[in-house]
Amino acid sequence: MTKDDKPQEGMGLHEFFAKDPIAADKAFFGRVSYPDRRGFLRGAGLATMAAMVGANIPFHRNMPAGFIPVALASEDVLQGKDGLKLFNDRPVNAETPAHLLDDPITPTSRHFIRNNGLLPDDMDPAKWRLKVDGEVENELELSIDDLKNQFEVVTMALVIECGGNGRAYFDPPVSGNQWTVGAVGCSNWTGVRLKDVLTKAGLKSTAVYTGHEGADIHLSGDPDKVPISRGVPIEKAMADDVLIAFQMNDGPIHPMNGAPLRLVVPGWPGSCSQKWLTRIWVRDKVHDGEKMGGTSYRLPNRPVAPGEKVATEDFVIMERMPVKSIITFPENNAEVKGETEVRGHAWSGDRTIDALDISIDFGATWQRAELDQPVNSGAWQNWRANVKFPTPGYYEIWARATDSEGVAQPFAVAWNPRGYGNNVMHRIAVRVS
Amino acid sequence: MVRKTARAALALVSALLLVTTVEASEFGVLVEGKGAEETYYACSGCHSEKLIAQQGLTRERWDELIDWMIEEQGMPELDDNERKLILDYLAENYGPDRPNFPFK
After folding, report:
1. Same domain membership, residue A97 and residue A230
2. In this predicted structure, what is the pLDDT of residue A6?
3. What pTM was estimated for this model as a whole?
C-alpha cells in the first residue's frame, strides 16, 4: 500500500487498515510523514482507530488533515452547564464566572468541571457498584440501592474547590489549568456518610489512609493507567461531613461532576472528592495512587521565592484548603450609581469564617459585612454589605475573609511551583456614576 | 477499546458534519509558527491543544513536562529533532511572558 492509495468507495475502514495500519494511517489522513509515525498509532490514536473499525467512510476523498483531533473533541462538553468558561475540552476543565456563583447553593448548571481523564462509557446507576476493601474487617460491595437502604441518607451543602483555583495569578506562571476564581461550588449533595460505610466495614487498627478509585478513563486510552486516584487520612475520612453522594441538588449528578456516585470531601482539594467512584481502598500507609506523588497537589515544605526550583522530595501533600472568599455581586466592571449591595460567599477548609470585610480604597479602610452561619459543616457562608461610594469614579471592591483560627486572606500570592492554594483576596472593578 | 466504539462512531459522524465549522487555524488555538504542526500532532492525541495554549513556561520547564508525559502518562517518545522543534516552538510562543495567552 502506498501513500497515494485511497480507500475505495464504500470500503470499510476495517479492511483498509487491516493490511498495513501504518501506511493506511498515512494514506487515510494524508499526514506528513515522520521517520517514525508509530507514535500516532499508540495510545489515543490506536483507541480512535479501533473505535472506527467497522465504520464506512462517506467522505473519504475530502478528509481534512485535522480530522482526528476534531473527532475526539466534537461533543458539546458543556451540555447542561450555563455560562461556564471552558479552559480545556480534553480533558474537560471549565470554571464558573464569579457573578454566576451568586446563588447561596450552586445550581448543577453552574458547578465547575475539573476532569483528569475521559468520562466512563457507562454511568448507569442501576449497575453501579462500590467496593470497600483493604484494612477493614469486612469487605463490602454495595449498589446505590444498598447505600440508600443500609445507611442514613443525608443532604448537605458542601464546598468543593479545585486545589489549583487561582493558579492564573501566579507570576511566573506555573503549569496546569489557569483557573481564576471560579473553580469552586457549594451544591446540595445527597448521599450517605463515608464514616457510616467505613464503620460497617469495620476499620482495622492498621487503617491510616483511604485510596479512592473511579471509573474515568486515562487520556491515553491505556486501560492500565488511571487518570487520578487520591485519598485522605482516615481521620478526615471519618468526619461527619464527608459524603458518598448519589444526588446533586435533588437530581441526578451531572455526568461531568461524577455521575452516578462520587465522594464529596468538603474543604480539601477537589481531587480528594473522587468522581465516578468505584472503590474505597483502606490503606495501611499514605495512599500512593495517581496524583498523590511527585509534586501533584503538593506544596514545598517551606516558603519559596517566585520561580524558585524546589527538589521533589521537599514537597508535602496539600490537605485543607485555606481561607477564601468570592464576590458574586456586582459583576466585575459593573456600572453602579452611588451605592450598591455587595455580596458573596466565604469558606475555610475544616474551619468556619469569623468575619468578612470589604474595602473600596485598596485596603486602606475596611467595612464589616453581615455574615451568615453555614447551613451545615462543610458549607460556605453567605455575606452581604451595603457599600456607598464617596464620589463618582473607578473603584475596586476587595473582600477579605478571616477564619475561626484568626487567619485572614493574604494580599499577595504565596508562590509555589505547581500553583496550588492561591487564596488572595478577590477584587472586582466598578464604575460609579 | 471496543466499548468506546459507539461513542466514537457518533463523534466521527458529528465531526464530519462539523468539519466545515472548525476554526480557521489548522492547529486549534495554537498560534501559527514553525513547529506548530509537530506540537499539535505530538500532543493532541491525548489532550486538547487548549491545555498547551494556557501555559507560560520556560523551555526547561516544558522539557521537564514532556519527560513527565513520556515517563508517566503514556506519551510516545519523541526523536531528538522533533523534540527540539517542539521545544523551540513552545519556548517562543508559550513562554512565561505569555504572549499568546488565550483568555482575558
Report:
1. yes
2. 54
3. 0.83
Please answer whether residues B47 and A90 qualify as being in contact, where contact means their C-beta atoms are separated by less than 8 angstroms.
yes
pLDDT in tens, A288-330: 999 999 999 999 999 999 999 999 999 999 999 999 999 999 9
The ipTM estimated for the assembled molecules is: 0.77
C-alpha to C-alpha distance for A72 and A57, rounded to whole angstroms: 17
Interface check A293 vs B, CB under 8 A? no
Residue A207 pLDDT class (50, 70, 90 cuts): very high
Q: What domains can be seen in chain B, in order of their start residue?
A: 24-104 (1.10.760.10)
The residue of chain A with its CA nearest to that of B6 is A51
**Chain B stretch 33-62, residues whose beta carbon is closer than 8 A to a beta carbon of chain A:** 37, 40-42, 44-51, 54-58, 61
The answer to whether residues A425 and A347 belong to one domain is: yes
How many domains, in total, are found in chain A?
A: 3
Q: Does A73 touch chain B (CB under 8 A)?
A: yes
Residue A69 touches chain B, beta carbons under 8 Å = yes
Segments forming the whole domain that contains residue A43: 13-72
Report pLDDT digits (tens) over A18-38.
556 556 655 555 444 333 333
Looking at the fold, whether A120 and A30 belong to one and the same domain comes out as no
Q: What is the pLDDT of residues B2-22, one digit of tens each?
A: 444 445 444 444 444 333 333
Query: Are A213 and A161 in the same domain?
Result: yes
> For testing the chain B interface, which of A92, A174, A220, A332 should be mutated: the one with the most B CBs within 10 Å?
A220
Give the nearest partner residue to A51 out of B1, B44, B58, using CB atoms. Answer: B1
| Domain CATH number, residue A427 | 2.60.40.650
A221 φ/ψ angles, rounded to the nearest 5 degrees = 85, -10
Contacts of residue A300, defined as CB under 8 A and 6 or more positions apart, other chains included, come to: A310, A314, A315, A316, A416, A417
Q: Which of A34, A45, A88 sits opposite B45 (nearest CB)?
A: A45
Residue type, position A153, single letter: V
Does B41 sit within 8 Å of A40, measured CB to CB?
A: yes
Q: Three-state SS for A142?
A: strand
- Residue A235, Cβ neighbours under 10 Å: how many? 9
